[in-house]
Design a protein that fits this description.
Number of helices: 8
Structural class: mainly alpha
Largest sheet: none
Radius of gyration: 18 Å
Order of helices and strands: HHHHHHHH
Distance between the termini: 39 Å
Length: 235
């Protein structure tokens, strides 16, 4: 059983940094501050702990392709942002622009990087090193990824599991260069849906809010297929 102990590493980091950030979360809640920045800070500490203590010892991993990650992320976010302004542009004036942009560009970026490093890169590499089956290397990190999000219902557990499976598959085929941007963009789309839902429902109606989210996800899916099939982009 000892050789499988590494599976608990992401949970261990989540537990440690959740305990450390709990007082800060309580303070932020009492002041009405945005809690996502505190969560992002905890994720940043988790990511740094992994990079310094674990990743540096895994010799088969190269440097993180930051430039490519940001370029691919931008190529996903820009069309999605354009579609959002086209479909629900009138509601963005009702939002707190600074909070919205900071969460989209910083908070979700930090969260996506941390979770992909832990649940995709670390678990995939370690599971491969002990010759676990390919199907389990895809499914098990996705299940652990879903559990760590503390799902409030079975439907949310399944939703995040499906997302985790897709991200695991992308990592196995393209590495961090595609799974981080997709995770980041997905978080922004879901956050935009929840943030703008009251305003969109009031101005356009509830079906319009759902249509915007579905079209945004389909747009990302289409671009992912293009990136996935075009080898030259990842040369």
């Amino acid at each position: 059983m000892r050789k499988y102990a590494f599976l608990a590493y992401p949970f261990f980091l989540y537990l440690i940094f959740s305990i450390c950030t709990f007082p800060l979360l309580a303070f932020a809640r009492s002041k009405g501050a945005d809690l996502m920045l505190v969560n992002a800070l905890g994720c940043l500490c988790m990511g740094l702990a992994y990079v310094k203590r674990k990743r540096s010892k895994i010799t088969e991993l190269g440097p993180i392709p930051w430039t490519g990650i940001f370029l691919v992320t931008a190529s996903l976010i820009v069309p999605v942002a354009a579609l959002s302004f086209l479909l629900i542009g009138d509601v963005f004036n009702e939002l707190k622009h600074s909070v919205f942009l900071i969460n989209c560009m910083v908070s979700f970026g930090v969260v996506a990087v941390c979770e992909e490093l832990l649940f995709r890169e670390f678990l995939t590499v370690r599971m491969k090193s002990i010759h676990m089956p390919a199907w389990l290397i895809v499914l098990l990190p996705a299940f652990l990824f879903s559990l760590c999000h503390r799902p409030e219902s079975v439907s949310l557990l399944i939703q995040r599991f499906i997302l985790g499976v897709a991200l695991s598959f992308l990592y196995r085929k393209k590495g961090l260069l595609l799974c981080i941007p997709v995770h980041w963009t997905y978080n922004i789309i879901i956050y935009t849906f929840h943030t703008t839902l009251p305003h969109v429902t009031l101005v356009y109606g509830a079906p319009h809010a759902a249509l915007h989210t579905v079209l945004s996800l389909l747009l990302v899916l289409g671009m992912v297929i293009v990136f996935y099939s075009n080898r030259s982009i990842f040369a």
